[in-house]
Design goal:
The protein is of the alpha/beta class. It is built from 14 helices and 20 strands. It has helices at about 20-35, 60-75, 75-80, 90-95, 100-105, 120-130, 175-180, 185-200, 220-230, 250-255, 275-280, 285-300, 320-330, 360-380; strands spanning about 5, 15-20, 40, 50-55, 85-90, 110, 135, 155-160, 160-165, 180-185, 205, 235-240, 265, 305-310, 335-340, 385-395, 400-405, 410-415, 425-435, 435-440.
Length: about 475
């Protein structure tokens, strides 16, 4: 579901609707910071806003269609209020550019990902001159926001460390919409995380299309992790996303040897068949992936490993799909995001026949989900009886009487407790588990006092 990111400041007013990944969430928070500097404030409802901005995703056809549908829904509001400014931000804007203005007469501007810092000044220009514009020309240039992002979560912050992607996976449109890689300087990232720590944030997630290829000219990603962990004072550090072909032993060593770096690896496998992986241009085979996972688990036995899996890629045979099922049984991911392939115009794979029938795609996806759900349930059940360090994030979605937090492995834990535990890092004993949720009780000492970890562990894995 989309979510709105709006922040209170002075008039005029705006609404910002975000679709897609955490990179888009971070981009929207950065845009909100720029809008605040330019004097814009939140509108409670879209039909009361002076500007409605839609930050879009096109990684899959379904995501693009949801964003387009939402933008078309704004047309009646524009007819009633011609002064309303409507803008399309992000990947859809970069992909289709000025053609969106021709197709959608109610849209005033489109801005690609690396032109997002200009949104505040652009809105002022449009309010004054009422012209329509497309800004998509800086796809491969460095990007810098002048204002601090206006972050939604008071405990956990998103910090973008790099933009773009140099991989050429045959199915992926991201290089076309986000450009080639550019890494922010390590010192700039460390300073931002240190500010977050001083201002009360407990956890950061470092973001990039492929964080493992981060390089600012002096530091690689393992260097950056250690620098941020040692110099910023933040309690927990996460990162996404890691490309399996680029995950180094130095990175595994950094995670294993640094208490503030969480033991959570998201490693998109995409498929378990060597021929399919080769056509995808992923740069590794099924045995390479297995060896990588084995290396992680040797160094970090309690690592939580998650993945992305695609079914129905062009040419995928029943044996190819069986190989993906076999990889799932072998690796035993904690969880997986699973989806059907959909062609993306402009990618190499889009030129190939989409020759796996939709009915077959759906049937394979159902089989894969059934298998992975059973694996996830077994993996979660193995946690029962363990003690987990949990950052308490807020009330449970289903009951205000229960609290929700996440383990270092990013698993959701539900437990009873008062509201004043929110924001604390506590120890919880896991009492039962489902495939995607753990349930527990806060640990008490022999004298009845609550235990609190507060991120002060010095070693991992009980060493």
């Amino acid at each position: 579901m989309p979510h709105q990111v709006s922040f209170v400041n002075d008039q005029p007013t705006y609404c910002l609707i975000t679709y897609g990944c955490q990179m888009n969430d971070a981009d929207s928070e950065a845009v909100a910071g720029e809008l605040a500097v330019h004097g814009w404030q939140r509108a409670e409802r879209e039909d009361e806003a002076d500007a409605v901005l839609v930050n879009t995703c096109v990684v899959r056809r379904s995501a693009e269609q949801r964003a387009l549908g939402r933008i078309w829904q704004l047309a009646p509001i524009k007819r009633q209020r011609p002064d309303l400014i409507i803008g399309i931000l992000g990947c859809l804007a970069q992909k289709d550019g000025e053609s969106l203005l021709a197709q959608m007469p109610h849209v005033d501007f489109v801005v690609g990902p690396r032109d997002l810092p200009s949104v505040g000044s652009l809105l002022s220009e449009i309010r004054r001159d009422r012209h329509r514009v497309a800004r998509i020309g800086h796809i491969d240039t460095p990007i810098a926001f002048e204002a601090e992002p206006l972050r939604q979560n008071p405990l956990k912050a998103l910090v973008t460390i790099m933009y773009g992607c140099n991989n050429d996976c045959s199915y992926c449109i991201v290089p076309r919409t986000r450009g080639r890689e550019w890494s922010r300087p390590a010192g700039e990232i460390e300073a931002e995380v240190a500010r977050l720590a001083r201002n009360g944030w407990r956890e950061v997630t470092l973001l990039g299309q492929n964080v493992n290829s981060y390089c600012d000219g002096e530091h690689n990603f393992a260097d950056l992790l250690r620098t941020v962990a040692q110099g910023s004072g933040i309690e927990r550090i996460r990162y996404v996303t890691s490309h399996p072909k680029d995950l180094s032993e130095r990175l595994i060593e950094a995670v294993a040897g640094t208490p503030t770096i969480c033991e959570n690896f998201h490693l998109p496998a995409q498929a378990g068949s060597d021929p399919v992986l080769q056509r995808m241009n992923r740069g590794y085979g099924r045995d390479d992936y297995r060896r990588l996972v084995e290396g992680i688990r040797r160094a970090i036995p309690d690592a939580v490993i998650t993945t992305d899996l695609m079914v129905g890629f062009p040419g995928e045979s029943e044996q190819d799909f069986a190989d993906t099922l076999d990889l799932a049984r072998s690796v035993r991911w904690d969880s997986a995001f699973m989806f059907m392939y959909s062609p993306r115009e402009g990618t190499p794979a889009a030129r190939w026949p989409d020759d796996v029938p939709t009915a077959v795609k759906k049937e394979r996806l159902a089989r894969l989900i059934e298998l992975q759900e059973a694996i996830s349930a077994k993996v979660s059940e193995a946690s029962v009886g363990s003690r987990q360090e949990v950052l308490v994030e807020g009330p449970s979605r289903r009951s205000d009487e229960m609290l929700m937090g996440r383990t270092r492995g990013n698993k959701v834990v539900i437990f009873a407790g008062p509201a004043d535990w929110i924001g604390q890092t506590i120890e919880v004993t896991i009492t039962r588990a489902s495939a995607h949720t753990l349930f527990g009780e806060r640990v008490q000492t022999d004298n009845g006092q609550w235990t609190t970890d507060n991120g002060q562990r010095t070693m991992k894995n009980g060493q």
